[in-house]
Design brief:
Elements: H1 3-56, H2 58-78
């Protein structure tokens, strides 16, 4: 075995190590982007389902909000006398 073939083998070994490191780095970046894409897709599906639920139950939600606003108005205006104290009778 000559010195040139030994140096050539050493050089090819370093190239192989560098190629493996770059390949590992590439696969790690690819995994991060795939995970981010999956997360965004899942969040979009979640929001679509949530909006569908809200829109399908808009009458019930509107009734609950109106009842809460009405009850709050009653508590602030009709349930108290002019001095701000609760009515006793």
């Amino acid at each position: 075995m000559s010195i040139t073939s030994s140096l050539s083998d050493l050089f090819h070994s370093f190239l192989s190590i560098l190629r493996n490191i770059l390949s590992t780095f590439y696969h790690a970046i690819e995994t991060v982007f795939a995970t981010a894409s999956s997360l965004i897709s899942s969040l979009a599906d979640l929001m679509r389902g949530f909006l569908g639920f809200i829109l399908s139950n808009i009458v019930i939600i509107g009734f609950l909000v109106a009842a809460f606003v009405g009850y709050s108005a009653y508590q602030q205006n009709l349930g108290r006398n002019k001095k701000g104290q609760l009515k006793t009778s």
